[in-house]
Amino acid sequence: MVSNFALGSGLALDRASRIPLYQQISDQLRRQIAQGFLSDGHFLPPERALATMLGVNRSTVVNAYGELAAQGLVEPRVGRGTQVRRPSEASELEANLRALPWPELLLPYAESVSSRVLRDIVALCSRPDIISLAAGIPNPDFYPHPDFSTLFQEILTEQGGHALEHCPPEGHHPLREVLAARISASVPGHVKVVPPEETLVLSGSQQGIYLVAGALLGPADLVITENPTFLGALSVFRAFGARIVGVPVDEQGMRVDLLEEIMERRRPRLIYTVPTFQNPSGVTLSLTRRKQLLALARAYRVPVLEDDPYSDMYFRPEAVPPPSLKALDMAEGGNQVIYLSSFSKMLFPGMRVGWMAASPAVIERALAAKQLIDIHTTSLYQWAMARYIQRGLLDKHNAAMRVQYRIQRDAMAAALTHYCGDTLEQNQPNGGFYLWCRIKSGESGLALLERAARYNVAFVPGGGLSVPGMSECEPYIRLNFACARPEVLEEGIKRLGAVLKVKKPRPARPPTALTHSGQDLKPLV
After folding, report:
1. How far apart are CA 357 and CA 200, in angstroms?
2. Which pLDDT tens digit goes with each residue over 284-337?
3. Strand pairing of 74-77 and 354-357?
4. What CA–CA distance (Å, rounded) separates 285 from 310?
5. What single-letter DSSP state applies at residue 193?
6. pLDDT tens digits for 102-121?
7. Residues 6+ apart with CB under 8 A from 479
8. What pairs with residue 476 in β-bridges?
9. Which of 373, 393, 416, 498 is the 20 to 30 A CA-CA neighbour of 223?
C-alpha cells in the first residue's frame, strides 16, 4: 500500500528543543489535519518509512501516531496503516488544537519512590473495606472536637470577623508566646528563655521541612538522616535534588558512632532526625547520643533539623524522653538546632498547625518563603490553639492519650504475638504511634502489602521509609497502633496473620498492581 501523503512533507524537527521528537511530529501532523492538508480518509506513511525519512527511531513515530490516535485524529487500520479521521465538528478540532501539551511544558520533578508509595497507600486506605494500619494519625474516637467546637464558638462570638481575617504571617502572637514558653520550660536549668520572635507558626511540620530544605539545600547537597526515617522528609529532600545518606538505628537511636565517619568524609549540609519515638522504628535517641550528636554538629558546623511530633506520647512516667536536642543546644548556648513540632499527632490530622523554633536568621528566611506559599496559617485555628494551651486543655488531653495509646499498643502487641508470632518480629516502643516489625521469611514489605490488599488490610512497607539505595528495611513493615480501637486493631492483625500464613505465590512475572475483587489499583512502585 502506498500512502497518499508525501513522506516527511512539511515536517521539521528541532533536536535542540525540550519538546520530545515524537511530540513535535504529532503536533505538526495535527496542524496539517486541521488545515486540510491531510483530509479525512487519507493514510499516513508507514511508521518505518517516516522514521527513515526523519532520521528517528521507529518507536518515535509509533509514539507520535499513538498521540494522534488518543486525540481521535487518526485510526489504525489492520493491514492497511494509520488513517486520518478528521473530526466532523470544527469545534472538536479546535479543541484539540487549543489543548496544551502539559507533560512537555512542566519542568522535571524528582518524585521519589517514597512519595509514590505514600500516594498509593492513601488511595488503598480510602477503600471502606480496608482496615488501615498505615496512616500516621491518632484514633478518631478521641479527637477533642467538643472542646474545639466550644472554642470556635467562643472566639467567633467575642471577636466576630476579626478572628477570620488575616493574621501576621509569622503567626498569632498569643500562640507564639505559649509555644515559646513551652520550649523555654524544657531547657535544662532554664538557662535561656526563648522569645516569641524565635518561633514561627506553620501549616503543619511538613511545611517546616520544606521551608528548611528550600533554604539550605541545592542539587547534590548531602543530607544525613536515620535509616529508616519519615517518608515525608525523604520526599522533600529528593524533590530539592539532595543526596541522602542514611545512618542505621539501634535500640538507642541513631548510630552516632557511624555518623562521625560520614561527616568527616562527606561534609553534609544538614542532619535530619526524629530523635524521640522515631518514625517508624519507635526508638528514642539516648541522652548520651544526643550530646554526642550536638558535639559533632558543632565541630563540623552542620545544622540539625529536629522533627519532634511524638515526645508527649510516652506511656509510663519512667519513659519520659530526654530533653530535646533544641533544649540541650540552648542550654549550652548553641544555635545549631532547628526545632519542628505539630499538633496533628496530639489532636487530629486536620489541625494543620505546627511550629518552628530556630535562630532569628532562620526564622526570617523561613518566614519570607512561607509568605509566598500560604501567606499565613489558618487564623481561627491559631486563636483556638492558643486558648487550648493556655487553659491547660492540651496537657490534659495528652495525659489521657498516653493512657489510651498504651492500651492500644498492648492490644496490637498481643494480637501480633497470637496471630503472627511465628512470622513477624516486633519491637516494644515506650511511646509514639508505631510498631516496627521484621518479616522473618525475608519477604519484602511491599510484596507483602500487595498480597495483604486482597485480605483488606494495609500498612506501610519498610522500603518506602528507607533511604534510596539502602535495602536493610525491605523486610520490615510499619504498623500504627494509635489509629483505631483495640478490637479493630486485632481484626487487622488477624487478617495480616492470615496473609503471612499463605505461602508466597511464584508469579510468572512480577506483579504490577494491587488487585481486589477484580479491581486493579495503581502499582505501588
Report:
1. 7
2. 999 999 999 999 999 999 999 999 999 999 999 888 999 999 999 999 989 999
3. unpaired
4. 13
5. P
6. 766 776 665 555 566 666 77
7. 133, 412, 416, 434, 435, 437, 459, 493
8. 438
9. 373
